């Protein structure tokens, strides 16, 4: 059992915990959640004995073996598989003594200890951990120093999993994993028999691996039973009792309902659309749990659009003389919302880099639309920030005529406020840099967003805010993410990058998950027969739908369909613009009508004028909504 009693913890003069109590029983699986800087990592250091409480006590069984995932690794010449085996310290200790032992009696004892440790299987276990986390067989003997920072973190994760433990501490284990490795890790943790404490921003991952939540907020530690979804519901019940929280909750629910109303007409279009609407309805129920979030940004409406925005034709993608993807044909249209699936190294990031113009084509053509405004987020964006300039200065450079207060208000919606907004960002954390990089992209009003693992380094509240903002984004979106909640709630179509091709995927994320686990020979619960399965097999549940006997005719039909639907799309956009304008004017009228001086006798004429305009606008808005619904139904019928 782990027990915190009246625990207080300060770091750098900042209070993280004050008189906190918590009791966790053996075998529980606990997600430790809270905003960046709230003290989650410090609490892990406390459990590892690296920190001492300022007051109170922490009790852990003295015989417990503790494994944790280190966040840094030095450039070592150790082979990857040997580095992972080093995590099994007892095995390495026996192995080292065995090599120097000359006493026959002691040799027999040491061999007995190796048998008890099941030592013959340890190298194989290390290899399976590495393969499960995305390493290739030819990388097992690669020196640690030859891996990039993200892959070294994976090595640390593998080493932590290799270490026999009673308590496992994992701090953001999915940060540098793709979806394939994340799903594998889920299965591994589900089979883990010890006590698990997990810090993660991936809500689906928490739901799959944890049955308790410990929430760090306002210097207190609150225990909730159930997974993350259960935590949201329980916390929402508490917050709904506060009037200020209730008002913000209603605004968020109205936003969700408006989104569902606009897109519900498309619910029969495809399985993806059905899944998305169900997820949005679920989000509406849990939204109050986020009413005190410090993040509330939106993407501005793109000023101009081209159709298509961007096209790849007969494209070969790769590096130097090495092609990774061939015969890529992709047109990105206004309103496209695409999620990229595929194993690590399959070419998802390469495709995004090529679409973003960062990586040149090896063959084929990349065609930009006349009004393309590209927003591209990847991890190198964090490295390209001007660390000596303030966030406000970096935005001012992009829009020299923008008012200072406008810039500060905008940065505030990303919780970059006060000295953070006006001072150097050299000491920003990874999460703060990621928020600034996103803010810079949003500020430039893109009409096509390319996002490569945008939730890495973000906390749960910021991930939620990004998901909501992307739902309201009116441009096109292509995203690579291991965060299934983000994908499920922001994309309509999936593209599988696999075996040198990028093809439409007919199933949903649950289909993809089932296929991955069924073929994965490294899975803790996989059958040995899975090892013979073809890793390049198309996982589509209805692969025949993707086959076309006449590709030229299919392209011509698609072009004709787009031309036929263009007037409807234009009508719908016009109606939406009109409704937005009417709603803004209604809001202004209601603010004016709230002025008590307007109801004095001297202002009677003005009052009547405003009331008349209010009535006309409401009638106009109702008429436009009816037209919009009819146009959507017509669009649905034309596409079926």
From TrEMBL:
PROSITE patterns: ABC_TRANSPORTER_1, ABC_TRANSPORTER_2. Residues 521-562 are annotated as: Disordered. It comes from the Bacteria. Residues 572-638 form a coiled coil. Residues 521-543 have a biased composition (Polar residues). SUPFAM superfamilies: P-loop containing nucleoside triphosphate hydrolases. Keywords: ATP-binding, Coiled coil, Nucleotide-binding, Repeat. Residues 2-243, 310-524 form the ABC transporter domain. One of its GO terms (molecular function) is ATP binding. Residues 544-555 have a biased composition (Basic and acidic residues). Gene3D superfamilies: P-loop containing nucleotide triphosphate hydrolases (3.40.50.300). The keyword ATP-binding applies. Belongs to the ABC transporter superfamily. ABCF family. YheS subfamily. This is Probable ATP-binding protein YheS. It comes from Litorivivens lipolytica.
